[in-house]
Specification:
Number of domains: 1
Distance between the termini: 29 Å
Structural class: mainly beta
Radius of gyration: 12 Å
Length: 104
């Protein structure tokens, strides 16, 4: 399914094929403990390292999506099912997502 990997260190947003749900999100983010925030009414969510605020930040890139708090490292944007229990293809388009990101 269509998802996007945001890499603050490289300052890139790349389309990825997410075939293994939450396990795939954890693998892409690089950590087991993940959290998420809703980014729009379509059900798309931003998944990120739950402890990114506590880990050593030296040398790590940061970004902000819309008005959410700044995050460090990597994050994944993917859609979620109506009940929030599963993931599905992201609805946001790549160019729209890129415009919504501020690199810090």
């Amino acid at each position: 399914m269509k998802a996007y990997l945001i890499d603050a260190n490289q300052r890139t947003v790349s389309p990825v094929d997410l075939a293994d749900g939450l396990d795939g999100i954890r693998r892409l983010v690089g950590y087991e403990s993940i959290d998420s925030e809703e980014i729009d009414a379509s059900g798309d969510r931003l998944f990120f390292d739950e402890s990114c605020f506590l880990r050593d930040q030296s040398g790590k890139g940061r970004f902000r999506l819309d008005n959410l708090v700044p995050l460090a490292g990597k994050a994944v944007v993917v859609g979620t099912t109506a009940d929030g229990a599963g993931v599905k293809a992201a609805t946001v388009e790549l160019t729209n997502l890129q415009r919504r990101i501020t690199w810090l």
